[in-house]
Amino acid sequence: MCVCARESRIAERSPRPFSFLLLLPRPWSRALSVAGCAALVTTTSPPPLLLPPLLLLLRLAPLRPRLFSPFAAAMANYIHVPPGSPEVPKLDIAVKETEPSGGGGGGGGGYRYGALQLLRRLRPDWKPEEVTLKVFTDGITNKLIGCYKGEEVDDVVLVRIYGNKTELLVDREEELKSFRVLQAHGCAPKLYCTFNNGLCYEFMQGEALDPEHVCNPEIFRLIARQLAKIHAIHAHNGWIPKSNLWLKMGKYFSLIPTEFVDKDLHKRFLKDIPNPQILQEEMAWMKERLSNLGSPVVLCHNDLLCKNIIYNGKQGDVQFIDYEYCGYNYLAYDIGNHFNEFAGVSEVDYSLYPSRKLQEKWLRAYLEAYKEYKGFGTDVSEKEVEVLYVQVNQFALVSWTSLVYILEMLPFNAKTKQKNKTDFCQGNVFFCQATCVGIFYVGSLCTPKEAGKRSLSN
Q1: Which of 4, 46, 10, 42 is nearest to 331 (CA)?
Q2: Is the same domain home to 220 and 192?
Q3: What are the 10-residue block averages of pLDDT along the chain, 458 residues in total?
Q4: Which is nearest to 159 in space by CA: 135, 176, 129, 126?
Q5: Do both 321 and 372 map to the same domain?
Q6: Which domain holds residue 51?
Q7: Count of structural domains, the chain
Q8: 203, 233, 255 — which closes off a domain?
Q9: pTM of the model
C-alpha cells in the first residue's frame, strides 16, 4: 500500500481518547461535553481531560446544532505547541511601514524609530546610533527589515511588519503557534517576540532561491527532505486533524467584493472573472474530487514560494521561512503548491512547470525522507511515486500563490496607481480568491475541471 494512503487509513482507524465515555448515561456525558466546550472557550491551552469529550457531542441531539459544528472544526485544526516550548513575549509596540521624508527616523515615528524601540528590549547593549537597518524587497505581503550592529552580520534581528489588510487572510494566532511548533522541531529560526503589528525573529544565513534553483537536483532533494520533515511532525495532541483548505477557501470566497469604485477595475472584474455561482460550483467540484484522493492531512507550510526557501551552501541545507499560511492540509497540496512556484511569480511562465520526469525524482526523494522520518524504512516503490504524482497534480489546481503577482499588481495594471485604497484592498482579496478557486482558469486558460482532466491524461 502507498505510504500516503497507509497514513490516511491509519489516521481513520486511530483510537479516539476517552471514547469509552460514550457509554455513560446521557446526563453525565452532556455535562462533560458542555464543560469541555466551555474550557475550550475560556483557556488558551485546552486541558487534556476536558478536550477529548467533543466526541460526546454526537450523543447530544438537542445541543448538536449549537455546539458540535464550531467546536469540532476548532479541534480538527488545533495546533498543539509542545510542552516546554519557550514563551514568546508580546511587546506593546507598533512599527510603521514607512520612513518620514528626509530619513533619519530617530524620533520621527518611522519604521526605524519602531525598530529601535524593539531592539531596546531584544538587544539592550546595542547603541541606537550603531544600528544598521536593511529593508528587504522580496516580500510580497509584508515588510521585512534586518537590524544589526555596525557591520556585524552574524547577529541579525528581523523585524517583520504585517501588510495592510492581511488579517483578512491570515490567522495570526495560528501563525504564531505554527512558528513555535516548527521552532521546537528545528524547522524554524528562533522567535524573539511579537509586537502590535508584526514579529521579530532570527535571521537565517543563506540565499533566497529563484525558480531556476529549484530545478537543481542537489537543491530540490534538500527541499523535498525538509518538507518531509515538516510533514512528519506530530502536532495535534492525539486528535485526528482535518484539512483547513476548504474552510479557508470559503472564507476567501466570502470576501469577494460585488463591485469596485474604480471603473476600469470594475470593468475588468466583470469581463475576466467568472461570477460567484460558477466559482462556487468549481469549488464544490474540487472539494468533492480532491477530498477523496486519499492524501493524508499533515502539518503543511502552504506557501512554499522560491523566496521562502533559504539555501545555505556552506552547511548544505535549506530552511523554510514565512509561516503565515502554515496549518493542517493535504500532503499533496503542499507539494503541488510548490510545483506551481517553478513557473515564477513576477513573470509567470507555465512552460517551467516541472516535467513528469523531474517530478518523479522529486517525489521519490520526498517519499524516502518521509518514510524515514515516520519510521517506515526508506524503500519506495514505483506505485507509491505514481500515486503521489497523480495526487499532487490534482491538488495543484487549488494552489493560489503562483498568481500572487496578479493579486498584488492588478490595481497598477488597471492604471489606478493606487489612487483608491479601498479598491486596492478589494483587489487583493478578490484576486486571491479568484486564483484560489481557479488557478488554471487564468494560468492555463482552462477551467479547473478541464485542467483536472488534462492532469489525469498526462
Answers
A1: 4
A2: no
A3: 60 42 39 39 42 39 40 63 91 90 60 96 96 84 91 93 85 94 96 97 95 95 98 83 86 78 85 81 88 94 94 96 94 96 83 96 98 94 97 84 37 38 38 37 35 38
A4: 135
A5: yes
A6: 16-76
A7: 3
A8: 203
A9: 0.74
